[in-house]
Write a structure and sequence with these properties.
single chain, 7-stranded mixed sheet, globular
Length: 120
């Protein structure tokens, strides 16, 4: 069973910053697209940002201009720097790994999630 382990969540005041990290197996980091999703109570899980194995990022609308995703495949680490956090960013944040095979087959894994709470 592949384990993706998140860290770095916590309680922060509006306008504050947090760094989330995800670590996992070396072969996942060599080959898989990685990303961060989040889910708030009563809402669907949504893409925050993802990054290809070669380092090209894509951001969801909520993250543009405030969050930065990065990965270091040798260190088996993916990070999400979140600036200017607002109460609406409160959610569980999940690390995600995805590999797409031909004919729409895929291999994907999820972390257990780390809670981010933005409150004064």
């Amino acid at each position: 069973q592949v384990q993706l382990v998140e860290s770095g969540g916590g309680l922060v005041r509006p306008g504050g910053s947090l760094n989330l990290s995800c670590t996992g197996p070396a072969d996942i980091f060599r080959q898989y697209q990685m990303g961060w999703y989040r889910q708030a109570p009563g809402k669907e899980r949504e893409l925050v940002a993802d990054i290809l194995s070669g380092g090209v990022p894509t951001y969801g609308e909520s993250a543009k201009g405030r969050f930065t995703i990065s990965r270091d495949n040798r260190k088996r680490t993916m990070s999400l720097r979140m600036n200017d956090l607002q109460p609406e960013d409160t959610a569980s944040y999940y690390c995600h790994a995805l590999f797409l095979f031909p004919r729409n087959h895929k291999s994907e894994f999820w972390g257990q999630g780390t809670q981010v709470t933005v409150s004064s």
